């Protein structure tokens, strides 16, 4: 009869992070690419058979702008006819950053590009009509990755939209809503089985957090599903955190801090020889006699 007992033990460690305590800010006051140094490394043992990582909770401020430096760029081309001569002007535009409703956007457009523009918003179609007093015009992308056209109701990828009788109505509704989710990523941990549609394969994303708070509010995320991803680690001396949108743009928290708690579960294989354990116990008793 064997006196060997074999079982598995789970050692769990929680890592509490606050962006204000980061040791390196890779993108400054945006605070969405940071690194934390650990005084004592987190290590696995020889008998470790598996490690799992989870984001237990996170408290994330909705402090970024709806129109920001990742989506405020587009081009305006205009024609001015003098007799039979056409003068063309091309302008690369950067719309003022901020949070806008459709009506606020229309007002800011006229303030930014001039009173010859008239923008009208329809709450029925959720579209904005763009109209110029005297010139024909067209909108286009300057860079599809920073284009404002989708927010205005147009499409991505080098599309070109021209007016009809000084008036242009976009084919789609405006989109001044918040991004639907943010992605917590890390170079420290690679979850072996996580996949996203952007890479079509493995990803650095360790957690996606739905944006369920309004602008100026606070996202309170809890891992109710208790999901834990399998990771490979031997020793961790620092932890990097990147927080991005679905288009791989870093979130700009504008110097407002976030917090989160990570948990690492280390599963160890434990083998105990009961005969040896009995000898140890016997020796301890004899030493105390």
Describe the structure.
The chain has 289 residues and is mostly beta strands. It has 2 domains: 4-65 and 179-274, Jelly Rolls, CATH 2.60.120.1100; 73-168, no CATH class. Helix content is 10%, strand content 46%. It is built from 3 helices and 19 strands. The protein has helices spanning 102-113, 149-152, 274-287; strands at 4-18, 24-25, 33-43, 48-61, 73-82, 85-94, 117-122, 127-132, 136-140, 160-162, 167-168, 181-185, 195-196, 201-202, 205-210, 218-222, 229-231, 235-244, 259-273. The strands form 5 sheets. Strands 1, 4, 16, 17 and 19 form a 5-stranded antiparallel beta sheet that branches. It is elongated, with a radius of gyration of 28 Å. It starts with a strand and ends with a helix.
Write the SSE topology:
Blueprint: E1 4-18, E2 24-25, E3 33-43, E4 48-61, E5 73-82, E6 85-94, H1 102-113, E7 117-122, E8 127-132, E9 136-140, H2 149-152, E10 160-162, E11 167-168, E12 181-185, E13 195-196, E14 201-202, E15 205-210, E16 218-222, E17 229-231, E18 235-244, E19 259-273, H3 274-287
Antiparallel strand pairs: 1-19, 2-3, 3-18, 4-16, 4-17, 4-19, 5-6, 5-9, 7-8, 8-11, 9-10, 12-15, 12-18, 13-14
Characteristics of this structure?
mainly beta; Jelly Rolls; single chain; 289 residues; elongated; five-stranded antiparallel beta sheet; 3 helices
Which structural class fits the helix and strand makeup?
A: mainly beta
Please identify the top-level CATH class of the largest domain.
Answer: Mainly Beta
What does the overall shape look like?
elongated
Task: Give unreliable regions as ranges.
Answer: none
Q: Could you tell me the number of beta strands?
A: 19
SS field, number of helical segments = 3
> What is the architecture of the largest domain at the second tier of CATH?
Sandwich
């Amino acid at each position: 009869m064997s006196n060997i007992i074999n079982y598995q033990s789970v050692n769990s460690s929680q890592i509490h992070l606050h962006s204000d305590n980061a040791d390196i800010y890779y993108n400054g006051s945006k605070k969405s690419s940071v690194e934390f140094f650990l005084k004592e490394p987190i290590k696995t043992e020889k008998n470790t058979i598996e490690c799992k990582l989870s984001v237990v909770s996170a408290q994330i401020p909705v402090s970024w702008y709806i129109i920001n430096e990742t989506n405020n760029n587009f081009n305006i081309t205009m024609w001015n006819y003098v007799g039979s001569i056409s003068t063309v002007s091309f302008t690369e535009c950067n719309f003022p950053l901020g949070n806008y409703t459709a009506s606020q956007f229309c007002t800011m457009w006229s303030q930014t590009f001039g009173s010859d523009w008239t923008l009208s918003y329809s709450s029925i179609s959720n579209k904005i009509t763009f109209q110029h007093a005297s010139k024909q015009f067209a909108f286009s992308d300057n860079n599809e990755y920073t284009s404002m056209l989708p927010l205005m109701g147009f499409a991505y990828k080098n599309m070109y939209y021209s007016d009809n009788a000084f008036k242009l109505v976009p084919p789609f509704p405006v989109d001044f809503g918040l991004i639907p989710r943010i992605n917590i990523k890390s170079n420290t941990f690679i979850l072996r089985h996580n996949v996203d549609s952007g890479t079509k394969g493995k990803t650095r994303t360790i957690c996606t957090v739905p944006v369920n708070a309004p602008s100026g509010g606070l996202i309170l995320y809890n891992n109710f599903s208790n999901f834990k991803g399998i990771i490979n680690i031997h020793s961790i001396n620092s932890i990097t955190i990147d927080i991005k949108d679905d288009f791989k743009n870093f979130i700009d928290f504008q110097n407002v801090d976030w917090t989160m708690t990570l948990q690492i579960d280390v599963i160890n294989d434990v083998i105990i020889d009961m005969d040896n354990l009995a000898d140890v116990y016997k020796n301890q008793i004899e030493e105390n006699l």
